[in-house]
């Protein structure tokens, strides 16, 4: 049962409305998570700015794979539905690649290193080892790219935590529970 109610358009704070309207126009509907998050213009607009900036980091397949891995570790079912949908429809990942990403891996060696590193960052709360940094650098990621991976982990964790706290009603297709993959 949702712990917060998605705002109806007439109840969205004026400071959140332009950002929410942009998402609605882009996606074609207003996801419940965003309609709930919009209750705090400060947090919602800060997240949207971070999301927009990080949409230029790495490539879409790697970003979505990191989102899946982080959401799996954080146990965020709402985000797993969203990232599974976007991974399939925007990043064009196969169902097998989506499951692999949820497990912290990828078929592509470079993407695999990034996803494994992201998973290590979230599991260790950033206390990665020298070998973890070496592994991601050895496939060609620069320190700037590694910073972007850490930023993506933080951004995805923010929405994971928000959705785990408030449990908005899911409006994307359901995914297989983690124990079944």
From TrEMBL:
<protein>
    <submittedName>
        <fullName>Carboxymuconolactone decarboxylase family protein</fullName>
    </submittedName>
</protein>
<dbReference type="Pfam" id="PF02627">
    <property type="entry name" value="CMD"/>
</dbReference>
<dbReference type="GO" id="GO:0051920">
    <property type="term" value="F:peroxiredoxin activity"/>
</dbReference>
<dbReference type="InterPro" id="IPR004675">
    <property type="entry name" value="AhpD_core"/>
</dbReference>
<dbReference type="InterPro" id="IPR003779">
    <property type="entry name" value="CMD-like"/>
</dbReference>
<dbReference type="InterPro" id="IPR029032">
    <property type="entry name" value="AhpD-like"/>
</dbReference>
């Amino acid at each position: 049962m949702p712990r917060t109610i998605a705002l109806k358009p007439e109840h969205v704070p004026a400071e959140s409305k332009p950002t929410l309207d942009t998402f609605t126009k882009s996606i074609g509907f207003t996801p419940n998570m965003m309609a709930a998050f919009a209750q705090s213009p400060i947090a919602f607009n800060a997240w949207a700015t971070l999301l927009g900036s990080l949409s230029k980091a790495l490539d879409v397949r790697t970003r979505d794979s990191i989102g899946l891995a982080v959401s799996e570790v954080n146990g965020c079912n709402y985000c797993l539905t969203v990232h599974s949908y976007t991974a399939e429809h925007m990043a064009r990942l196969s169902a097998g690649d989506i499951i692999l990403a949820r497990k912290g891996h990828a078929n592509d060696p470079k993407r695999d290193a990034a996803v494994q590193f992201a998973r290590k960052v979230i599991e260790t709360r950033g206390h990665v080892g020298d070998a973890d940094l070496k592994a991601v650098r050895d496939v060609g990621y620069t320190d700037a790219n590694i910073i972007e991976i850490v930023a993506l982990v933080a951004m995805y964790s923010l929405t994971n935590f928000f959705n785990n706290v408030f449990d908005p009603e899911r409006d994307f297709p359901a995914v297989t529970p983690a124990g079944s993959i």
